[in-house]
Every structure is written in C-alpha cells, then in structure tokens.
Write a structure and sequence with these properties.
The structure is a homodimer. By secondary structure, chain A is of the alpha/beta class. The first copy, chain A, is built from eleven helices and 13 strands. The first copy, chain A, has three domains: 52 residues; 244 residues, 3-Layer(aba) Sandwich (Aspartate Aminotransferase, domain 2); 104 residues, Aspartate Aminotransferase, domain 1. In chain A, 35% of the residues lie in helices and 14% in strands. In chain A, the strands form three sheets. The first copy, chain A, has a seven-stranded mixed β-sheet with strand order 1-7-6-5-4-2-3, sandwiched between helices. In chain A, a hairpin with a 2-residue loop joins strand 12 and strand 13. In chain A, helix 2 packs across helix 8 and helix 5 packs parallel to helix 6.
C-alpha cells in the first residue's frame, strides 16, 4: 500500500488560496493547520455578517443567531433516512424532533395527527418534487397546470417527470387567472388535472385563490377523483394559515399535499422544508427497502437530521404567538417601505397581506448588488423577512433615493413604465403617475 | 389583526413532551424557555453520543468532532442556490468553498478544471437524480441498466423519470454480471444505453468493473454517442480513485457523471455529496432563471452552503495523505474483523480492498439494534468507517461471540447456509464449513 503516497494527481502544486483545498505539508502539525483554516473561516464569517445585514431580495430569514446554541450537535452525522414515522435500526437520527415539527404543521394546516404523512425536506423544491410525483402516480395521465408566476422548479419538474404541462396566465397581482385555467381545463376535459397552487409566488408574493380553483374544477365537471392539488406554499405556508385562521388554507379542502420552506419565514441555517400529504397517499411511493430497515417514500433517501432540530427549536422559541407577531411586523414594515417608495414617486406594488414589495428596478447595479435585490425585467423586489428591521429599510432608502435623483435628473432617461407588470394604479411613470 | 391571537388551532393543549412543539406560556421569559430547550438538546446529545459509539452498520463517518469549530457560521442561512460556477446577487453563499471542494474532486477523478461542471448536493441520491437525468435528456429513448445490487434510488429514479429499466444480475461479490448485461444490450440494440455503474454497492461494497462494462458496450456495437455512463460512487468515490491511483476511475474514460457522498467516507454532520459531470453537458438541464440571477441546472434549487464548508474543512485537514491513511486503516480493520469472524466459524465475506464486512445475520435483534447492523435476508454487514476503531470491533465481538454460542449450543437451531449469498468458500454452515 506504500505506493499510495506516490499518487500522480498532485494536490499541492497550486499556491495556497483561501478557498482551495491544499495538501498539508509533511512537517505541518494539526494545530497549525486548524488555526490557519479557522482564520479563513473567521474572515468569511465577517464577510457573511456584512452580506446578511444587507439581505433584502431573498426570501430567507437571516435571524439565525439563536441556532448557535445547538452547535454541539455538529459532532454527529445525524441522518433521518427513510420514513420519519417508522423506527429504524439506525440510531443516530432526530425523528422524534421531526415528528414534533410535523405535528405542529399538521395542526397549522388542519389535518389530524393520524391522517397526515409528511417529512422534513431539503427545501421547497423537494416538497414540490414529492407532491407532484404523488399527483402523477395517482393520476398517471394527468396534465400539470400551474401559473406562469410559479417557481421555476414547477416546469423543471414537469420536464423531469415527463408530464404534459399547461402554463396558466396570471393576473396583475401575480395570482393564477382562473378564467384561463377554465379554458384550458375545458379543452383537456378527458384527462385528469394536477394543479400546482401557489401560496405566495416567488416574485410578487401572490396567493392563488384556492377556493376559486376548486370552483373552476367543479364548473368544468371535474370530480374529486379527477384532480390532484399540490400547494407550493414555500414562502407563505406559515404566514397564510396564521393570517386566515385556517379557513382557506387547510386540509379540510380537497388538496393532496403542501410544501413549505423552513428557512424562509421561520428561519434555519440550512435550507429545509416540510412536505405534508394525506396518510392515505403514503403507500403510493413506498418501496420497502429491507436493508435500511424502513420504508422509503421520500425523494432524497439520506436526510439531514439537524434541520428538524433547528425547526423544532425555532418553533418552540416563538410559538404561534411569536410567529403571528413576526407576521404583523413584517406586514407593517412592508407597508412602510411601500409608502416611502410611493411617496418618492417610485412605481411600487404590495399585495394585500403580503411581505414582498415590488418596485422599479434601480438603474445602478451597485445598489442591486449591495442590497442583493432580485430583479425581473424592469422590476425589483424586497422580501420583508423578520430580520429586515425598519432601520435596515431606512438605510436602504437613504442609499437609493439620492442616487435615484441623479439617474433621472437631466430628463434624458425616464423611469420605465411598469403598468403592464404591476398595474396602472401602481405605476408612477411619466404617463401613469398622475 | 387582533383576532390573530384567537386562532382556533390550539398549540398548547397537549402536555409538554420533549420532542413536541409547545406554545410558550404568556408569563414565560425567553431565557427560561431557552434553558428548557437546551436541557432537552443536551439529553439528546448524550443519547446520540451513545448511539454514535455503536454505529457499525451504516456508511457514514461519525468522526465529526472537528466540525464544531465551524459552529459560528450557524448564525447565517447560507444558500448556494443555482450554479456554483456563476456569481449571484445573493451574497450569503459559500460558493468559493464549494469550488475549492469541486476542484479537489476534479483532480481526484482526473478531469481538468475547465472541463468539469458539478455541484455539492444534498447526498448521493441527488447526484443520481442529476446524472441519470443528464443521461435521459442526452439519450431520450435510452434504457436504464443497473445491477440488482444497486442503491434503491436507482429503480426509484427510473420510475420518477418514466424510463425503461433493465435490472442486471450480479455476481457473488455483488458486482454487475457483464454476461447478463451483454445479453440484455443485444436484445435492445436499437435503443441507446444509460448505464448506472456502482463504485461500491450498498450492501457488499462491490465495485462494478467499469472496463468490462465499456468492453461489453463495444462488443455489442454501441458507439460512444449511443451510451451514457453514470457512476454511483456514493461510498467508494473517494476510496477507489485513491486506491487505484486514477487508472480505472477517471474521466479519461467515457463516463458522463459521478455521484459521491460527502458524509460517508470523508464525514460531515449533514448529508451531502458531490455531483460531477462534463462541462459540455452543462447546457442540457440549464434554465436561465432571471430572478435568481443565475442559471439553475441543479436538482434542488436552494442548496445548503454549510455543507461545502464542512467538506472544505475536512479535506484541508486530512489532505490526500490523511485520507489514504484512513483508507489503509479501514481496510486493515475490515480484514481484522473478517478474520476474527471466520476464526469463530461464522460465514463472512469481504471483497478485495473493501471496507464492508458481510456476515451471518445475528439471531438476536438486541445485538442488531445495539450495534445498528443493517441486515438483508440472512446477511448482516458492518461498514468499517474511519470512526470504527479496532477497540469498537473488539467490543462488538465480545458482545456477539458469547451470545452466538448460546443460540446454536443445543444443536436444534443451525446457522443459515449463506452459500448463495456470499459463495461456498465464504460459507461456514454445517454443509460448507469444511
């Protein structure tokens, strides 16, 4: 085995750069190496701290300080492989915390403890992968319908699963246009419908009207066994049920599954999510895998056991009341931002009860980059997450407003018209702005 | 918004149990709640410590102590969404560490820095999802071939992707039977072949003979544009190239992609992996998603930014030499375990250069549970990972051997014959054992 050390592929020819993997020198002791690496990590920590304090455009809660209290668990590779509701011979898992979290979400979405099945995913996309697969396996000839404002994972999944896909138009608000849905359902009346309903679209934070979708299906003559509804509730899966008190977003209605992100509104260092469905659908994807001593009906197999503990900790620290307070604060701050932008003569839109403020795309890439704004066409948006305090919004406005004056001061360049994107009433361009 | 607090779904009706999410009491202060939760986490930490010290049956390295040094980064939600090789407006990412890790694996698998594309996944399954999707999109009418000893994700993915799937027989060692492969390729000569090659099967740690697979394809008249090879190297993706010095497992051969687990041999608190392919295939799954300002050609979208830092840290601490030492130690310890089991008259198999010892399934479930042994039919296995020191193996044997004597002492029950599972020469049953 001595020859191993003569391996041709040299690992130390390149000069050391902070992000490279560089072979330790023969004389280098472990402590020196560790010190050197920790120095790089500390620099990186400071860089992240700066970036996180200007994090406005992405739907993730950067208020994660508390989770450092859980760091002793990093000593273990915690793996929740397989079904969370089945015990496994693998003992280094956190399934009891996972179940605690799932039970909480089951209560939030009004489904009985013994009527749901679910698991903690790697994020919203895995939930979509799972929910749409359930739909396709239950209705193999079904067509997938989803609005054009859906998350990009939806058309991606249609392609992965070789499903026929119909894009539905959306309204100015960003929600699904049910008139267009109706026309497409009627054309395809001979085939089942698998509908992705957005509870919070990625760019405008619009919520598809679930009741109207159900009514449209009924109007078109689709019985319950001819459709499957998956809710992509990545962003608003916690917010919407808290706001409407479980009247609209609930398993009491004929939905099949819901996918909710854990790192978005609640917050988690690691991307994660909750996928929840009906226990009666549990068998659909089950494969009895003897050698892992569990039934694997998940997408990913090996699953992070730390994420459920982060979620458990976050939910226990805040509780429903704490989260409701966060929702109220975020909505208030979003309205504050909208009002300040409107007041400055900037095209702005904020949907009812939404935390995503859409506005005119800044001309200066420096501002986009500094504040990490997501842009689409002539729009930009800010997601007012719990870490986005009013002070941060003020700093942003203090940065944006004076600079914006310089872009348009000589009148040679005019602000873009956003009437088609966010509606005439929200557009402040030279034509529509009064 | 006052009505929010009147939400019907009560969160505090159940009595407090450690893993439940329980609404904080009105008078409860944050510090009290935190103390209470940390008490539960500390108990859980001690439970994990005990379970991790008896962790023999699963292919994960529990030697994760060093990673606690990175815990300050838990303050941030680090998200590497999209292509790691493209800069993003999102600044709270760790893509430079991810690239450092990918470059290292590119050197290990002999592919030039400017010729590869890859990303850090949530684990081996996501890599398989990605690699097989590449294969299917490049060869849409292709049939997927994989041995019956493949990881359960392979047939699962065939179903997800609506691909025709041919299971290939395997040899006693667990490796793909290329005679059976040949017969199935000839029958389906009119359709392209997508072949999943196992570099370390899950149960026996067998390595499919890549050269023989390539030879078989050539013998059957498949030109390079008529096949795609994905390597599922979850377990041995680091071990095999280190052992054979890059002669066999290399992108110099016509393979399309390789998926390697990060938490298995190297070790990481969080499941993760490396998916690597050729840059020329990068476009195949690309969707230009303007609003995340990046090209997303990954499966999962949002991606954990902590995992690449764990991998970067682990690789930098060990380097190639440290990993080679780990490989040597694990192989030595696996041989030690095999020899001790054989000496005790127990049916045992260990493939050449493997770290997975297959042996007679213990009759006592207590032992299976205590040592977390994976079982399949009448076989059990132990994966001799870097955390499995010889002392742990001795403790296991001290536990197993006296108990085993009691199971078979009266001669009424005889050890199962394992000749069909692991070969006559490895079987120690009353017929084959001398």
């Amino acid at each position: 085995m001595e020859t191993l050390s003569g391996k041709k592929v040299s690992m130390n020819t390149k000069e050391m750069e902070s992000s490279d993997v560089v072979e330790p020198r023969d004389e280098e002791c472990v402590e020196d190496r560790m010190d050197y690496l920790i120095k790089i990590v500390t620099q990186f920590h400071d860089h992240l701290k700066e970036r996180a304090s200007h994090y406005l455009g992405y739907p993730a809660n950067q208020d994660c300080n508390d989770y450092v209290a859980l760091s002793s668990l990093l000593k273990f590779h915690i793996n929740n492989v397989g079904d969370p509701l089945k015990e496994s011979v693998n003992g280094v898992h956190s399934k009891r915390f996972e179940i605690g979290v799932l039970d909480w979400f089951a209560r939030l979405w009004n489904i009985e403890k013994d009527a749901y099945w679910g698991y903690v995913t790697n994020g919203g996309t895995e939930g979509n992968l799972h929910g749409l697969l359930l739909g396709r396996e239950l209705l193999p000839t079904g067509i997938l319908y989803s609005s054009k404002e859906s998350h990009y994972s939806i058309p991606k999944i249609a392609r992965m699963y070789r499903m026929d896909f119909e894009t539905i138009a959306s309204l100015e608000s960003g929600e699904m246009d049910c008139i267009d849905l109706k026309s497409k359902l009627i054309i395809n009346k001979d085939r089942p419908a698998i509908i992705n309903v957005n509870i919070g679209t990625t760019f405008k934070g619009a919520v598809d009207n679930l009741d109207l979708v159900l009514q449209t299906l009924e109007d078109c003559g689709f019985s319950h066994d001819q459709f499957y509804i998956h809710c992509d509730a990545a962003i608003y899966g916690i917010i919407a049920p808290l706001l409407d008190q479980g009247h609209t977003y609930t398993f009491k209605k004929p939905i099949g599954s819901v996918s909710i992100s854990g790192h978005k509104f609640l917050g988690s260092p690691i991307p994660c999510g909750i996928q929840m469905t009906r226990k009666s659908y549990r068998h659909v994807l089950s494969n009895n895998i003897e050698y892992i001593h569990t039934i694997d009906n998940t997408i990913s197999g090996s699953r992070d056991g730390h994420a459920p503990i982060f979620l458990w900790y976050g939910l226990n620290m805040k509780g429903c009341k704490g989260l409701q307070k966060d929702v109220e604060n975020c909505i208030k701050n979003a309205r504050y931002l909208r009002d300040r932008l409107k007041h400055a003569g900037i095209s702005t839109m904020l949907n009812e009860m939404s935390i995503i403020v859409v506005f005119e795309r800044p001309l200066d890439h420096e501002i986009v980059h500094k504040w990490q704004l997501q842009c689409l066409g002539n729009m930009a948006h800010i997601v007012v997450m719990p870490h986005v305090a009013r002070e941060i919004l003020d700093n942003f406005l203090d940065d944006l407003l004076p600079k914006r004056n310089t872009w348009y001061q000589d009148g040679k360049v005019l602000p873009h018209c956003l009437a088609e994107d966010i509606g005439i009433s929200n557009c402040a361009c030279s034509i529509h702005g009064k």
